[in-house]
UniProtKB/TrEMBL annotation:
A matching Pfam family: Glyco_hydro_1
Gene name of the record: bglH
The protein's name: Aryl-phospho-beta-D-glucosidase BglH
Top EC class for this record: hydrolase
GO cellular component: cytosol
Record-level GO BP terms: carbohydrate catabolic process
Species of provenance: Actinomyces howellii
InterPro entries: GH, GH_1_N_CS, Glyco_hydro_1, Glyco_hydro_1_AS
Keywords of this entry: Glycosidase, Hydrolase
PROSITE patterns: GLYCOSYL_HYDROL_F1_1, GLYCOSYL_HYDROL_F1_2
Enzyme Commission number(s) from the entry: 3.2.1.86
Catalytic center residues: 373
GO MF terms, alphabetically ordered: 6-phospho-beta-glucosidase activity
Family: Belongs to the glycosyl hydrolase 1 family.
Length: 480
């Protein structure tokens, strides 16, 4: 069995090439159009520091890159690259400003109608995330987020509203972004207002159960209201390697991997896996302690997802035998791999890990896979291009994406069914983890700095033309 790249990367006909953003990182206009506050509006430093009491001027997400007013211009730029799919999220607090109202905000619904109009005008398939790290602040402060069972009903009402409004226009839906990140960032991922260090394991696992039930409920509603729609889960994919061949390191890597896989196991298989139940038992808990009812367990069994989507940025190592410092990854930590280089933010660069995780997920679930986030956060420098216009010579980003896409092609050759690939932050946006603009991912440079200054003008980076060629050639232009 070969591990070397094939000579010509091949992607299937109809492969969905595109990019991804989140409402809270691009839209801005936090107080326009009837929008209520979300948790992001009081997280000016991302997950690095405690939330603030009110929105503060240093929070870049309040204005972000002003996609709210510039969406038509931005989607036209994506179309110029040849995008087949555009992943974006809907801000829950634009539709239900507090989150627990009975009637939606029409002005918010109309905004996303206009976004979809632009996608349709350019022949771009929308991929919509229902909840992407932007729980309405009222739900966090009044109910402590997903620790409260009542959020299931609020989410069901929100999801039904979206499916009834957009179900005939949107084929691909994701229920929660990186749902497994709630283990590490409870406020960001679960809208849980209780500080992480004060949060009991019972409350955390109860919140997990509530989110999984809500996801299954949304899947049920979609099949009732929009039967042509396809519903996917979305998780952080992070291969976990043992630091050494010592069996204890191998076992430790397996246990950490299980903590991530459990969420998709429930989404795909419809039952809580035995290793998750063991984790509960070792905390002195059972499903009954999470308030799980027979009706809810039946809902999980009967309404599993149509596909599995995931973000992939890096792999990590784990060890039970060596005292090593943990690194920093996409929200989750881990032991740095001494054989791999790292990005400017310390994230290990591992293209082969993407092939590994694609094969692992396909072998485990045999469901179509969708890579909905992948990219390199880097400090970009504007220069003058050959045409006299500002640009960025981001060969480092081109190399990163090229090497990862080659491994996607290899996984497809392995027999893995991959629906598509959306790079993260296809236009520069505010970082979720650090709330910086300087951590840039896009093919399109946005003139905005960490201090909030800048014109917000958009400029095509070198990678813009590179990705355009990749899409036009169906991947044939990649360097194997």
């Amino acid at each position: 069995m070969t591990t070397a790249p094939s000579s010509t990367p091949r992607f299937p006909e109809g492969f969905l090439w595109g990019g991804a953003v989140a409402a809270n990182q691009v839209e801005g206009a936090y107080d326009e159009g009837g929008k209520g506050l979300s948790i992001q509006d009081v997280m000016p430093q991302g997950i690095k520091t405690p939330r603030t009491a009110e929105p503060t001027p240093d929070n870049l997400k309040l204005k972000a890159i002003d996609f709210y007013h510039r969406y038509a211009e931005d989607i036209a730029l994506l179309a110029e690259m040849g995008f087949k799919v555009f992943r974006f999220s809907i801000a829950w607090s634009r539709i239900f400003p507090l989150g627990d109202e009975t009637e939606p905000n029409e002005e918010g619904l109309a905004f996303y109608d206009r976004v979809l109009d632009e996608c349709e005008r350019h022949g771009i398939e929308p991929l919509v995330t229902i909840s992407h790290y932007e729980t309405p602040l009222h739900l966090a402060e009044t109910y402590d987020g997903w620790t409260d069972r009542r959020l299931i009903g609020f989410y069901e009402r929100y999801a039904r509203t979206l499916f009834e409004r957009y179900g005939s226009r949107v084929k691909y839906w994701l229920t929660f972004n990186e749902i497994n990140s709630v283990l590490h960032a409870p406020l960001l991922s679960g809208g849980i207002n209780t500080p992480k260090e004060q949060l009991s394991r019972k409350d955390l696992y109860t919140a997990i159960h509530h989110e999984l039930v809500a996801s299954a409920a949304a899947t049920r509603i979609a099949r009732e209201v929009a039967p042509e729609a396809l519903i996917g889960c979305m998780v952080i994919a992070m291969p976990v390697y043992p630091l050494t061949p010592d069996p204890r390191d191998v076992l430790r890597a397996m246990e950490v991997d299980h903590s991530n896989l459990a969420f998709s196991d429930v989404h795909v298989r419809g039952v809580y896996p035995g290793y998750f139940l063991r984790t509960l038992r070792e905390q002195g808990l059972g499903l009954e302690d999470l308030g799980a009812t027979e009706e809810e367990l039946a809902l999980l069994r009967e309404h599993t997802v149509d596909f599995v989507s995931f973000s992939y940025y890096m792999s990590i190592c784990e060890s039970a035998t060596q005292d090593v410092d943990a690194g920093e990854g996409n929200i989750m930590g881990g032991v740095p791999n001494p054989t791999l280089p790292a990005s400017q933010w310390g994230w290990q660069i591992d293209p082969i890990g993407l092939r590994v995780v694609l094969n692992q997920f396909w072998d485990r679930w045999n469901k179509p896979l969708f890579i909905v986030e992948n990219g390199l956060g880097a400090r970009d420098e504007l220069v003058t291009g050959p045409d006299g216009r500002p640009t960025v010579d981001d060969d480092y980003r081109i190399d990163y994406l090229n090497d990862h896409l080659v491994q996607v092609a290899e996984a497809i050759a392995d027999g893995v069914e991959v629906i598509g690939y959306t790079t993260w932050g296809c236009i520069d946006c505010v970082s979720a983890s650090t709330a910086q603009m300087s951590k840039r991912y896009g093919f399109i440079y946005v003139d905005r700095d960490d201090d909030g200054t800048g014109t917000l003008e958009r400029y095509r980076k070198k990678s813009f033309g590179w990705y355009k060629e990749v899409i036009a050639s169906g991947g044939a232009s990649l360097r194997a």
